[in-house]
Write a structure and sequence with these properties.
The complex is a heterodimer of chains A (about 290) and B (about 300). Chain A has about 290 residues and is α/β, with parallel strands linked by helices. Chain A has one domain (about 5-290): P-loop containing nucleotide triphosphate hydrolases (Rossmann fold, 3-Layer(aba) Sandwich). Chain A has helices at about 15-25, 75-80, 110-120, 135-145, 150-160, 165-170, 180-195, 210-225, 240-245, 270-275, 280-290, and strands spanning about 35-45, 50-60, 65-70, 90-100, 105, 120, 200-205, 230-235, 245-255, 260-270. In chain A, strands 6-7-8-3-9-10 form a six-stranded mixed beta sheet. A four-stranded antiparallel beta sheet of chain A has the order 2-1-4-5. In chain A, β9 (about 245-255) and β10 (about 260-270) form a beta hairpin. Chain A starts with 16 loop residues before the first helix and ends in a 5-residue tail after the last helix. Chain B contains twelve helices and three strands. A three-stranded antiparallel beta sheet of chain B has the order 2-1-3. With about 300 residues, chain B is an all-alpha fold. Chain B starts with 14 loop residues before the first helix and ends with a helix. The chains are: A alpha/beta (about 290), B mainly alpha (about 300). The interface between A and B is medium-sized, with 27 and 23 residues.
């Protein structure tokens, strides 16, 4: 068991991620995993302070990858690198490698707008626009250049159907999205995100503002659409990660002895079954068994 | 050893304290009601005096082709036209500039830049209007307006309108900026996450979401332009009276400037008996206009409000 000593390595070295995933690939001979994101030494700094220690992992097509861990462990921060949402935060700086189908997403030539059309995002709090249900869904396609009414009608119906919302709202498409329940709003946000036909869906704690029934519906939905969209989900809820994800990354916090501030580290990454039943790291075990976090 | 029985008096509290509490409450109530009282006093004075003037005046003189109170010509349309031109020109000048400034400050300026610019904007809003009036008369009119419109008089409605516009730019910018900044960041993130460019996010999401606040800003600005007195008194070119004039590059008189002239000028010395009283009628009309404007704005804002 060499992994126990991995934490003594300097932080610029891979922790456990890469090895574990390679092992998983080797074990899965039926269909080799097609890597969508290849993360190598990815680290985020806020105004010069390192919020996340270098992260190594990869995300494969058609799978649900879950990021779990306590608050402040950097899981959302890492997720927000995947579609360059950190660009919106003044002072945020990204280091290391983040390749999407082999292309470095932080290459100076890469336009973040193009990235986000391929990599959609669903946020923690449902954030529908204060517009009609129809206009919410049609927003992305319109921005991307779809003008024809019939095309938009089609897209709206298809996206809402995929998000399991069509039957509930088909008679009130012109009504404001603000009148929907929280769970409906979040499914609307998912429908809105998939209306631009992205390859990847990033979900940042998409169920944390929802009740258990609404949460179950979103989870069902994720399982249904995962064949079409690669999903990366950040969640506080370990049961949720265990229920829906194929791979799980466990993040934790570490106190930097130099300045006494907490930074996030990726502790362990691997197949969800392994992480939950046979974690290699003590901290992972403590967290999933509820001893901390 | 049973404890003594508890009586209501034990829980009644200190009488003096309760009285003091009542006095404090009364003080605040009086202060709040006094503002309403003053407003009613103004309205009542305006209404009574305007009514007295209306009973006294020759009705046809209200439609004269000019406003010359000392000659008994109270041509209200002359004043309406003047006020209308000034307000429209001011909004045309200040609306786009103020709104664009608000968008820049709220959406594009980096925090440091914003921290510097916002206070400057607020200082600009505090410039006494008499200074803007002089600036209008001595710079905007001769250097800009008279060069663009060759036939323009020194004091003219366009120059005064631009001057009033300068005065209300900070107002529009400041209120609009507050409205834009109150749009939740989550909406900008939603739009950005869908692959919208910054300008698209601003135009399609942020501005519509802030619409009610922006409309409120414009209404406040219109009210201010309508009520602005010194710039138009100094720079619109008419002193004491004005002929009906539909040409904005000529001299004109607004409702406010007419009132200022009446209240300060020598007109009250030599004018016919009811000249000064006409001031109350114009004042009452001005009050009604702004009141109506605010009511319309209120309904508009409520109807188009995009709650988030």
């Amino acid at each position: 068991m060499t992994t126990v000593n991995d934490f003594d390595r300097p932080p610029t070295q891979p922790i456990t991620g890469a090895d574990t995933v390679d092992g998983a690939v080797a074990g899965n001979e039926v269909s080799p995993r097609e890597v969508v994101f290849d993360v190598e030494g990815l680290s985020v700094l806020y105004s010069g302070f390192r919020a996340v220690q270098p992260v190594n992992l990869d995300v494969a097509r058609g799978e649900i990858t879950a990021f779990i861990g306590p608050s402040g462990c950097g899981k959302s921060t890492v997720l927000r690198c995947f579609n360059r949402m950190n660009d919106l935060i003044p002072g945020a700086q990204v280091e290391g490698g983040l390749r999407y189908h082999g292309v470095d997403l932080y290459d100076p030539k890469v336009n973040a707008v193009e990235v986000r059309r391929r990599i959609g995002m669903v946020f923690q709090k449902p954030n529908p626009f204060p517009k009609s249900i129809y206009d919410n869904i049609a927003y992305g396609p319109r921005v991307a250049g779809t003008k024809k009414k019939s095309d938009l009608d089609d897209l709206v119906e298809r996206s809402l159907t995929k998000a399991a919302l069509w039957d509930e709202v088909k008679d009130r498409l012109k009504e404001s999205a603000m009148g929907m329940s929280g769970g409906q709003q979040q499914r609307l946000c998912i429908a809105r995100a998939i209306a631009v036909d992205p390859e990847v869906l990033l979900m940042d704690e998409p169920c944390s503002a929802l009740d258990p029934i609404a949460t179950a519906r979103i989870e069902d939905l994720m399982r249904e659409i995962k064949t079409e969209f690669t999903i990366v989900i950040v969640t506080h809820n370990m049961q949720q990660a265990a229920r829906v994800s194929d791979f799980t990354a466990f993040f934790s916090t570490e106190v930097d002895s130099n300045n006494d501030r907490r930074t996030g580290v990726l502790v362990e990454y691997g197949q969800t079954g392994t992480i939950f039943s046979n974690p290699t790291d003590e901290r992972t075990e403590n967290y999933i068994t509820g001893r901390f976090g | 050893m049973s404890p003594p029985a508890l009586t209501v008096d034990d829980l009644a509290g200190d009488v003096r304290r309760i009285r003091r509490e009542r006095r404090v409450r009364r003080c605040f109530t009086v202060a709040a009601s006094s503002t309403i009282l003053v407003t009613f006093a103004i309205v009542a004075t305006l209404a009574v005096q305007a009514g007295a003037f209306l009973l006294d005046v020759e009705p046809s003189s209200l439609w004269s082709d000019g406003w010359f109170p000392r000659e008994g010509k109270f041509g209200l349309p002359t004043l309406f036209v003047g006020s209308f031109y000034i307000t429209i020109i001011a909004i045309v000048v200040a609306g786009p500039i103020g709104l664009a400034a608000a968008v820049y400050l709220s959406e594009y300026a980096r925090p440091g830049v914003r921290r510097t610019l916002k206070p400057i904007l607020e200082i600009l809003a505090g410039i006494p209007s008499v200074i803007v009036g002089f600036f209008t008369l001595n710079f905007i009119s001769p250097q800009l307006i008279q060069r663009i419109f060759s036939g323009a008089e020194r004091g003219n409605l366009v120059a005064a309108g631009v001057g009033v516009g300068v005065l209300i730019i900070p107002l529009i910018a400041s209120i609009s900026e507050d409205a834009l900044r109150s749009v939740p960041q989550s909406l900008r993130e939603a739009s950005t996450g869908l692959g919208a460019r910054k300008s698209t996010t601003v135009i399609k999401v942020v501005l519509p979401a802030a619409l009610s606040g922006i409309v409120a800003a414009f209404i406040v600005a219109v009210s201010r332009a309508l009520g602005e007195t010194l710039v138009v008194t100094l720079a619109a070119g008419a002193a004491g009276g004005a002929q009906m004039n539909l040409n904005p590059t000529g001299a004109g008189l607004t409702m406010t400037a007419a009132m200022a002239n009446l209240a300060t000028g020598s007109d009250q010395v030599t004018g016919v008996g009811n000249a000064v009283k006409s001031l109350y009628l114009v004042g009452a009309l001005l009050f009604l206009f702004t009141l109506g404007l605010n009511l319309v704005a209120d309904r508009f804002v409520r109807r188009f409000r995009q709650a988030y």
